[in-house]
Amino acid sequence: MRIREENRNIILLVTVMLCCGAVAGTLTLLGPELVPAPEKRVAERAVIDVSRTSLQAPVRVVGAPFEPNVNPRER
């Protein structure tokens, strides 16, 4: 029994779909949970140094400012 040439692409597609579905189903049933464990707090009374964030230098932008092209015919 031979598979007709017209049906070979469909048979290949169905075979690949079934194999991928079997792999995905197996990993879903047997695989470990991908949800990370809840993080533990290291210090309940941690103090954040706010003065460090204000010492950052302003950023200099190089180049022409962005202007959207509202009329595509003009370039």
Topology:
Elements: H1 8-30
Describe the structure.
The structure is a single chain. The termini are far apart. The mean pLDDT is 78. The protein has one helix and no strands. The chain has 75 residues and is mainly α. The chain has one helix at residues 8-30. It is flat and about 70 Å long.
Mean pLDDT: 78
- How does the overall form come out from the CA principal axes? flat
SS strand fraction: under 5%
Poorly predicted ranges (pLDDT <50, ≥5 residues)? none
As a percent range, the share of helical residues equals 25-40%
Using the CA coordinates, give the radius of gyration. 29 Å
Structure characteristics:
0% strand; mainly alpha; 75 residues
Structure described in brief:
The chain has 75 residues and is mainly alpha-helical. It has one helix at residues 8-30.
